[in-house]
Amino acid sequence: MTIRLHDTRAQELRDFVPLDPSNVTMYVCGPTVQSGPHIGHVRAALSFDLLRRWLQRRYGRVTFVRNVTDIDDKVLANATDTEKWWGLAYRMEQEFTAAYAAVGILSPTYEPRATASVPQMQELIERLIDRGHAYPASDGSGDVYFDVRSWPAYGELTRQSVDAMEPAADADPRGKRNPQDFALWKGAKPDEPADATWASPWGAGRPGWHIECSAMARRYLGEEFDIHGGGLDLRFPHHENELAQSTAAGDGFARYWVHNGLVTVDGQKMSKSLGNFTLAADVLAAHDPLVIRYALAAAHYRSSLDLTDSSWSEAEAALGRIRTFQERVLRAHGVQREDDDRDLPASFAAAMDDDLGVPQALAVLHETVRGGNAALDRSDREAAIEAFADVQAMTRILGIDPLAPEWADGGSDTKTTTALDALVQAMITQRAQARADKDWPAADRIRDAIAAAGITLEDTPDGTHWSIDG
How many Å is the Cα radius of gyration of the chain? Predict the structure, then answer.
């Protein structure tokens, strides 16, 4: 067993060798909660949910940390007189949690808020100052900056030189030695809320964005851990700055850097700043959550994903094929659900081991469904049951088993489903009567009308069953 992951820092596929094979450690940058999640946020979280599930399968235990940035310029900017910044942050955090849960993303082992780790951030800043890699501004502002030119490795994550970089725009440039220096601590400003500041050796203020993740990763996972994840858009400056400040402070920090591709609209990344985003709540209101999970997972995690109406219809059809096969086997043979530790098909496992190749793994899944249906058609009970067990094992790993309890409601319109079932059952009864009366033209007309509606009938010894034709 060898898992290979694309390491952004090395810019190549690397064999994954965890520090402790009995406990893989992962830190993933979570949301800045100034507003609700768009579908790009959900895709990012799902990418690492899939990686976590696979690592759990291979190693047994994964300590997974995903932070919440609840203090930031954007959070303060979006607060109002009637909703304070901390109230806004908490409300938006709940929206993210609800969106993640809706599509079956597992809860983190730990989900720290930045505001709960300010002492650890200050300790890290002090270490950087003592080592000569950070400095308090000399203008009395209370700002503290990381000195990028003091750290020769700065820029190694994204293969950039300091001279080619734009000035850091995360803080007022007051008191900077170099335009590219970035803020570790931001001195309090008169127009900011008093309750958004903490006492520090450099004066009242609040942490910079980048220092938050370095401190929280160290607090919950130690000086060195296995995987740091996040969206491709976080490589610079956020992850570049995390890497620099943590290693400059003497920590090994992340051994593998893994980044997911972005959701795009007409070739541009989906983002709040560009105004081209689709809110997760709107997508969830329009589509079955399981369909959303499948559609977001179907592309390789490192690829860009341009979502269209066909993305949802294709996902729905694919899930329909899986569900129809499962229901056929259950009707014919009444098999029980298998144990979670069942061996997976070798080709599926190989795809997942190869940089989390979900598209290739899905191809194995659907080939197994086709083989299982063929086994049912030729009345090969043993082969059909074996295929059913393989399908269950694969869909559980991916979190897309249509028969799993968490998808029981499926976000579907129950009244619509009930009404459709009543109509189809009535037509099935009429067809059965026509056949009993040997009125073959009438029976054929009824079957053709059902087929024209995209519904498949299956005649079995225990009756006729229907399913949506996928």
Answer: 27
pLDDT given at position 170: 84
Cβ atoms of residues 48 and 26 within 8 Å: yes
Residue 405, preceding peptide bond in cis (omega within 30° of 0): no
Instruction: Kindly report each contact of residues 152-156 with a partner whose C-beta sits within 8 Å and lies 24 or more positions away, as own/partner.
Output: 153/244, 153/247, 154/240, 154/244, 155/240, 156/9, 156/243
Looking up tokens 């690592």, which residue turns up? 55
Using DSSP, state whether 268 is helix, strand or coil: strand
In order of 164, 287, 368, 373, the CA distances from 38 in angstroms are: 32, 15, 34, 38
Q: Which of 73, 110, 90 is nearest to 207 (CA)?
A: 73
Q: How far is the C-alpha of 95 from the C-alpha of 90, rounded, in Å?
A: 9
User: How far is the C-alpha of 460 from the C-alpha of 331, rounded, in Å?
Assistant: 9
Residues 6+ apart with CB under 8 A from 327: 465, 467
Task: Supply 164's token pair.
Answer: 């080619």
Cβ–Cβ < 8 Å for 162, 148: yes
Tens of pLDDT, residues 410-445: 544 444 555 566 667 767 877 877 787 788 887 788
CA angle, 400 as apex, 394 and 403 as ends, to 5°?
95
Q: What is the pLDDT of residues 357-371, one digit of tens each?
A: 999 999 999 999 999
The length of the chain in residues reads 470
Phi and psi dihedrals of 198, rounded to 5? -130, 150
